[in-house]
Amino acid sequence: VQLQASGGGLVQPGDSLRLSCAASGGTFSNYVMGWFRQAPGKEREFVAALTWNSVRIQYAGSVKGRFTISRDNAKNTVYLQTNSLKPEDTAVYFCAAKIGVIDATYATYKYWGQGTLVTVSS
Question: Residue 35's closest CA among 50, 52, 54, 53?
Fold first, then answer.
């Protein structure tokens, strides 16, 4: 499956962005979908993930209550609504896909998009 992330940009603290990740070349509903991010000089970290039917959802503690992950299987797209953005949310955001159980470990995700840059700055 190929993944294409979009929606990043430069915003001010407190603003919102909706990131999208369009999938192609596979059966989208087979996959657990996740979002990860990587800030300059830091390791890639888990942000959120959800199962094919959105029944199970996980968030990193740093984004819980501010970010919302969702998916539209009819559109082969997963979204990340980011609210109340902070400068520490600045990173390249990647979408990823895996078969199997939901988890926060990036090494278990087989398919990755190219990333979209989110910069939060005043």
Answer: 50
Q: Which of 56, 42, 24, 54 is nearest to 89 (CA)?
A: 42
- Tens place of pLDDT per residue across the chain (122 aa): 999 999 999 999 999 999 999 999 989 989 999 999 999 999 999 999 999 999 999 999 999 999 999 999 999 999 999 999 999 999 999 999 999 999 999 999 999 999 999 999 99
Contact status, residue 99 vs residue 30, Cβ threshold 8 Å: yes
Q: Which of 71, 79, 73, 94 is nearest to 16 (CA)?
A: 79
